[in-house]
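Much of our argument rests on the idea that a fold can be written as discrete symbols. Part of our work consisted of pairing the sequence of a single chain with a tokenised description of its backbone. No coordinates are needed to read the tokens, only the vocabulary itself. The record that follows shows the chain in one-letter code together with its fold in token form.
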Amino acid sequence: MIFIESACEIGTTTSGKNETTCGISMTRARKRPKNLPPGPTPFPIIGNLHLLGDHPNQSLAKLAKIHGPIMFLKLGRINTLVISSAAAAKEVLQKQDLAFSTRHIPDALHAHDHSINSSAWMPVGAQWRTLRRILNNNIVSGDALNANQHLRNQKVQQLIAYCRKASQCNESVDIGRAAFRTSLNLLSNTVFSKDLIDPFEDSGKEFKEVFGNIMIEAAKPNLVDFFPVFKKMDPQGIRRRMSGHFGKVFEMIEEMMKERLVMKRWKQEDDVLDRCLKI
């Protein structure tokens, strides 16, 4: 039995041999409990960080062959439980999901208090359940998906038309940009009832840059995540840059909310934004 002091982060990766590796990051512990699973001996200060290499998923799969499907690593100051068998992963992710639901939050996502206001990161509680209920009822429920089916069809047709137009003009198609534009407009129509990017023009560079930068900063290995003592220093500047990117997103959303408050007098049908503004 493993005693988890508080929040843990669950992430899954797959190696080339279809071995699933599930990592659960735990909070710092002053003393290592005697009943922890087997694992490689950690070095002072860095722990087992040196064992991850350039391809952590492959490294973890190799270590699991030595130490077993449930393995303990110390990544800097963070105690980490690694699960690499389907049976153990099912136990953690399905049968005991509530016990493991609270996550260790990467430092970058503390920018603009995103960690306490996002349903993806906030701890399970009344506010989390309220946000999940709003999402389920308005976006991912069967009725909501059926109601928005025409939007999905429309955006796919626009994507096909864009590719056909480029072919007729003998122009190349940036698949990544076209897919991003289609996905963003589908989401924006579901929530805001409008396109954020012209589906037939090479626009929306600023949107792609902002969201792309958020993904880049969130995915960067952050020294603070392994050595929390450096949190106030933010030595890599990741949280500072993330605050700037989040700020730009919030400015965009605020402008759309102001526009909606003016429009709602003659707008007949409600979308997700209208229903959220009524809460």
